[in-house]
Design goal:
The chain has 123 residues and is an all-beta fold. Helices cover 0% and strands 52% of the residues. It contains no helices and 11 strands. Strands 2, 4, 5, 6, 9, 10 and 11 form a 7-stranded mixed sheet that branches. A 4-stranded antiparallel sheet has the order 1-3-8-7, with no helix packed on it. Strand 7 and strand 8 form a beta hairpin. The mean pLDDT is 94.
């Protein structure tokens, strides 16, 4: 069974950093694109970052460029989202997602989703 499990969320202060993890299991993800999305209260889910599991292409939403970094550890079958200089506007549930094919920020093209992890940034 294919499964994505996020962890690493929590309550932090503005300016702090967090690293989210997405542990993947159930198949080989080498041909997959992995994405991070987030959904703030009362808002639609939005794209944050994505990368090919095999490496190379990465894509970021404009609002996180220079602050967030997506990466993966093949040995641990885990994708990470390093988040620096967090602001209260980054408060959201963060989701990991996977799809076969190329990197994209289009949510509807991802067909495997984790359950999400809450990130709360206080001012």
């Amino acid at each position: 069974q294919v499964q994505l499990v996020e962890s690493g969320g929590g309550l932090v202060q503005a300016g702090d950093s967090l690293r989210l993890s997405c542990a993947a299991s159930g198949r080989t993800f080498s041909s997959y694109a992995m994405g991070w999305f987030r959904q703030a209260p009362g808002k639609e889910r939005e794209f944050v970052a994505a990368m090919r599991w095999s490496g190379g292409t990465t894509n970021y939403a404009d609002f996180v460029k220079g602050r967030f970094t997506i990466s993966r550890d093949n040995a641990k079958n885990t994708v990470y989202l390093q988040m620096n200089s967090l602001t209260p506007e980054d408060t959201a549930v963060y989701y990991c997602a996977a799809r076969t094919g190329w990197v994209t920020g289009k949510e509807e093209l991802y067909n495997i989703w984790g359950q999400g992890t809450q990130v709360t940034v206080s001012s």
